[in-house]
Structure formats: structure tokens, C-alpha cells
Write a structure and sequence with these properties.
The chain starts with 5 loop residues before the first strand and ends with a helix. The chain is α/β, with parallel strands linked by helices. 37% of the residues lie in helices and 18% in strands. It has one domain: Protocatechuate 4,5-dioxygenase, Chain B, CATH 3.40.830.10. The protein contains 11 helices and 10 strands. Helix 5 packs across helix 10.
């Protein structure tokens, strides 16, 4: 198998599990296009620790880490297997890159992982594990975290940064159909930076992009995009996972960093020789 692409996915509100909008079908289509990975590694802002921790449960539980939503959300389960051996490999890579990593044997999947996976791999038939997001990241260190994880993409692991392209919960309007201009302006700026490989701009976007601090009053939902970019590197083709803007201010676009078609062709050729 050729090197897998890496993904950034906007997981939006927990209601994304029940209300897929346009991003959900786009993810499902992408899941059928990608070569089948050995496992998916998700970096999510809903698991934050001092240093990176890698989940190694063989059967991770579905964590409903939110409150006040439709009871149907709490009945959802995403029964994917874990990947303990790959978790150990990931921790070793992080340690080698200077990150004080450890393994958590019982951690489940937070909604930043299982909600988008509901759409990407609808049958829950690909193992999923997580790396926690360190609490004191900068644009540079988030990118370096992605670089430390990058070898996994050559080993059949699909690296996913799951966050939100914009994340100002103070301005969310659940039934709003009008898009806030600043959310569109910020997401358009990010799209241009991604598609033109301007990774230095991505690392500094909170300070440099228009309305960066309004789009992200706190940066934790932005850093997974930088992690995904770091795991891929700047010299790769990119494309947009169209998501639109939900609830007035939550931009749902995602990105594919890397060539999907070439990897698929390689996987098909490999299967033909078996």
C-alpha cells in the first residue's frame, strides 16, 4: 500500500451524528474511495492531557461526553475495535520524537472520534484509536505532533485530525439559516492556505487569519487541522471535503491531505496479486 492521505474533519456539534447535513454524505463517499486502512488514529480536542496519551483498549467504549441533547444521541454506539499494537507503536514514535507519551489501556472513543467515524466508516468495521491533544500547544508544536505521527501513514494508518474549522460556541444559533460573514471569511482564508500548501500560514492562522480569534476564542478545535497538515507535509495534493456552515457559525469543511486516487490504485493492484 502507498502512503495514506491524512484528513482533517470538522465534527461540529454532537448533533452531527443525527443531522449529517452535506458533510456526512461527503465523508461516507470518501470512506468508500479511500484504500482500506489497518486502523484510524484520531486526534480530538475532547481528550486533552498534559502530554500525549494513546488509547490502547481492544474494544473502546462509546463516550457520550456532552449534555442536554436529544436522548437519541445517548443511545448511539460505535462498536469499532481498538488497535492495541498500533497504539504501542504510536507511543514509541512519539517518545522517539521527544514527546513524553504513555498508553491508556481502557480509554474509549470521545465524540470527536466516534461522531465523524459514524459517517466515514458506517459499519464500524475499521479499528479506531486515539492520541490525546496536549493542552499547551502552539501552531508550531501542533505541527510537530503531526510530524511525529507521520510514519504511521506509511504503515497503513489513516491519521485524522478531528476538530472544527470554526468553533465560537458563544454565537451558535441552533435554528439559524443565515451564515455569519466572519465564519465564511475565516473558512475561505483557511481553504486558500490549505489548497496552496501554505502551512506556515496554517500554523499562525489564529493570529493572522481574518477574525481568527472570533472564529476560535480558544484554539483547541483548530489544532487538529494543524496536526493533520504536519502529518502530511506541505508538498502533497489537497482537496476540500465540503461541509458548508451549520448553525450560523460552525464551518464544517474538512480536508484531504495527499493523493487518494494513487493510493486506491495501489491498493487495487495489491489485492489483484493476492
Amino acid at each position: 500500500m502507498n502512503r495514506l492521505p491524512t484528513l482533517f474533519i470538522s465534527h461540529g456539534a454532537p448533533t452531527f451524528a443525527l443531522e449529517p447535513g452535506i458533510a456526512g454524505p461527503a465523508l461516507t463517499a470518501l470512506g468508500t474511495e479511500l484504500p482500506r486502512p489497518k486502523a484510524v488514529l484520531v486526534v480530538s480536542p475532547h481528550w486533552m492531557t498534559t502530554g500525549p496519551v494513546v488509547s490502547a483498549s481492544p474494544a473502546p467504549e462509546t463516550i457520550h461526553d456532552f449534555g442536554g441533547f436529544d436522548p437519541a444521541l445517548y443511545r448511539l454506539r460505535y462498536p469499532a475495535a481498538g488497535a492495541p499494537a498500533l497504539a504501542e507503536r504510536t507511543a514509541a514514535l512519539l517518545e522517539a520524537a521527544g514527546w513524553p507519551a504513555r498508553v491508556h489501556p481502557g480509554r474509549g472513543l470521545d465524540h470527536g472520534a466516534w461522531v465523524p467515524m459514524l459517517h466515514l466508516y458506517t459499519q464500524a468495521d475499521v479499528p479506531v484509536f486515539q492520541v490525546s491533544l496536549p493542552v499547551r500547544l502552539t501552531g508550531e508544536s501542533a505541527y510537530a505532533l503531526g510530524q511525529a505521527l507521520a510514519p504511521l501513514a506509511d504503515e497503513g494508518v489513516l491519521i485524522v485530525g478531528s476538530g472544527s474549522l470554526t468553533h465560537n460556541l458563544y454565537e451558535v444559533a441552533w435554528h439559524e439559516t443565515t451564515t455569519a460573514a466572519y465564519a465564511r471569511e475565516f473558512s475561505d482564508w483557511i481553504r486558500d492556505a490549505v489548497l496552496h500548501g501554505r502551512h506556515a500560514a496554517l500554523r499562525n492562522a489564529i493570529d493572522e487569519a481574518p477574525s481568527g480569534h472570533r472564529a476560535h476564542p480558544t484554539p483547541e478545535h483548530y489544532w487538529p487541522l494543524v496536526v493533520a497538515a504536519g502529518a502530511a507535509g506541505a508538498d502533497v495534493p489537497t482537496r476540500v471535503i465540503e461541509g458548508g456552515i451549520e448553525h450560523g457559525v460552525l464551518a464544517m469543511d474538512g480536508y484531504v491531505f495527499g493523493a487518494v486516487a494513487a493510493a486506491t490504485a495501489s491498493a487495487d493492484a495489491e489485492a489483484a496479486t493476492v
